[in-house]
Specification:
about 525 residues; alpha/beta; Rossmann fold; UDP-N-acetylmuramoyl-L-alanine:D-glutamate ligase; 2 domains; twelve-stranded mixed beta sheet; seven-stranded parallel beta sheet; binds ligand LP7C6HRI; binds potassium ion; ATP-binding; NADP; ATP binding
């Protein structure tokens, strides 16, 4: 599913009207009709049904007037509370206001206060205050109206976006309406899918309002990876597949106290379809990992008296990396100086597609310019916001305030693929392509989940997936496996090995879903 900013949506609107001659009124009619249909479907039609429409002076309010007219035709009582004087309403919205029976509209230029009883008596409140035209923090009578709507205790359906959400980034501009359902038009906006906006909006429906396909296709936007798009990325396996054709991954991981990270990355690669997995670990940890893993082959590297990798392990690691289809570097490596030095050397010399995570990223953060030495070879980083902050020199709040921009800039500057983890992980490609991941849940906020993701992505790279597909499908599958688990165990107490073991079933379910 494609997702755009509010500004891009407004330029789509302009092109549809200006170049394709579609009247704005027709678009507004379809938008309002789509909302009315969604309301009818959710709440049913008929006598005794009441929708209170809280409308602003812009076109979002205009959609609200259409909703009132259509629901009235279906037997609803559909009063409009207009938070502006009628003279302030212009254009298509004014034309639709005129089509309403004057008795339906209450003009409230001084605010919604005093209307609480009417809201409480409704089956549904329709939020048509602000949409993509929001341009500042919400205060004054609109702010007060949002508080009153949120306090009324009645289900809310938001028109296009919950009022108060920035269409471009999902941030709350002061305060925002909490809706059960949002009906967005033509394309979803970033504010509909990025948190916190996605949570404020509830369930999302995107209505076709007849925008010309060419205009929609040509508009710049991001991809939102949902079940359908993830399924489209899965490649068929040949019936002739054998372990050699499904990719041999090398995982370079582990230090004393962090053997679990190494084991999970290796096992998750196997659970994601890798043909073979070799796990290179500091020699002292070999007995532990020999018993922790079964299918993965451990390679004890370096001296047996150290529980971490030394810089001197370089040649041995390069020799085991020869011929591997993908390498993962980082889970549980630790931050010893000698290990950091080793990571820096490996960056320049490893040939295979390389996934870097965790302590591997912390080592890269000390000298990110070394990434440029990988010239032309595939590099894929999977930072969480803290690691992204260290890599980019920004603070965590700066990263969180512009997750897309941050991921996109770093990927382009250092010519890497990058997964910025968190609720709605962002996947960025070196050519500027950006995807937003649609799977995952708060149960994943626990140690080791990143090690699992590293294994999944390494396995997909090893199977020959394009790096952008490996990052997008791997991130989706990881979150999707956790989503499948939520149904049986909830979000508290789910651990990384649960997700690791759920991967094959999740892939199976994804392929079967229609
Ligand atoms: N995208 C489509 O295909 C269609 C969208 N439609 C609807 O139109 C709105 C966008 O309408 P627009 O008039 O541009 O903006 P808004 O209605 O969101 O509001 C703008 C209005 O509000 C003022 N304003 C902005 N910020 C604030 C604030 N913080 N506090 C108070 N007032 C504010 C601003 O000055 C404007 O006057 C889109 O979301 C859809 O719902 C069409 O129906 C056609 C199809
Ligand atoms: K709205």
């Amino acid at each position: 599913m494609k997702v755009v900013t509010g500004q891009v949506m407004q330029s789509i609107d302009k092109r549809a009207i200006g170049e394709f001659g579609i009247p704005g009124l027709a678009l507004m009619e379809r938008a309002g009709t789509a909302c009315a249909d969604a309301i009818s479907e959710r709440f049913g039609d008929g006598v005794g049904k009441k929708a209170v429409i809280v409308a602003g002076k812009g076109n979002n309010g205009g959609d609200g007037f259409v909703i009132s007219r259509i629901l009235s035709q279906r037997g609803w009582e559909a009063p409009v509370l207009l938070l502006a004087s009628p003279e302030a309403v212009t254009g298509d919205a004014a034309a639709n206001l005129k089509r309403l029976d004057p008795g339906v509209v209450t003009t409230l230029p001084h605010g919604l206060s005093g209307q609480e009883h009417l809201l409480k008596s409704a089956s549904v409140v329709v939020d048509a205050l602000l949409g993509t035209g929001i341009n500042s923090e919400v205060g004054g009578i609109y702010g007060e109206a949002i508080d009153i709507v949120n306090a009324c205790g009645v289900p809310v359906v938001a028109v296009d976006l919950p009022s108060g959400i920035d269409a471009g980034n999902g941030q709350v501009l002061g305060r925002a309406v909490r809706a059960e359902l949002t009906v967005s038009f033509a394309l979803a906006k970033l504010g509909n899918v990025l948190y916190p906006g996605a949570e404020f909006g509830g369930r999302l429906a995107v209505a076709d309002i007849g925008m010309p396909q060419a205009v929609v296709d040509e508009a710049p936007g991001c991809e939102f990876v949902d079940e359908e798009s993830a399924r489209g990325m899965i490649r068929k396996r040949s019936v002739l597949a054998h372990k050699g054709s499904n990719g041999h991954c090398l995982i370079i991981a582990g230090s004393a106290g962090k053997t679990g990270a190494a084991a999970m990355a290796a096992q998750s690669a196997l659970r994601s379809g890798a043909g073979l997995v070799s796990l290179a670990i500091p020699a002292a940890l070999n007995p532990v990992l020999e018993s922790k893993t079964t299918e993965a082959m451990t390679i004890a590297v370096g001296r047996e008296d150290k529980g971490y990798f030394l810089a001197g392990a370089l040649d041995e690691l390069l020799s085991v990396a020869k011929g591997k289809d993908a390498v993962a570097l980082g889970p549980g490596l630790g931050t010893a100086h000698s290990t950091v030095y080793l990571v820096h050397s490996l960056l320049a010399l490893l040939e295979a597609p390389l996934v870097i995570d965790a302590d591997g990223l912390n080592a890269v953060a000390a000298a990110p310019e070394l990434l440029l030495q990988r010239r032309g070879r595939v590099t894929l980083l999977t930072p969480h916001p803290g690691e992204m902050a260290r890599l980019s020199g920004l603070s965590i709040p700066q990263v969180e305030a512009d997750r897309i921009g941050c991921a996109r800039d770093f990927a382009a500057r250092f010519q890497v693929y990058l997964v910025l983890k968190g609720a709605r992980s962002i996947v960025a490609a070196p050519d500027g392509g950006v995807s937003i991941n649609g799977s995952g849940n708060p149960g994943m906020a626990t140690g080791g989940m990143g090690d699992v993701l590293t294994g999944v992505i390494a396995a997909l790279l090893g199977q020959g997936y394009h790096p952008f597909a490996a990052a997008r499908l791997g991130t989706f599958l990881h979150g999707y496996a956790a989503d499948c688990l939520v149904e049986e165990m909830g979000t508290r107490g789910m651990v990384a090995t649960d997700v690791q073991e759920a991967l094959p079933r999740a892939l199976q379910r994804l392929m079967a879903a229609t």
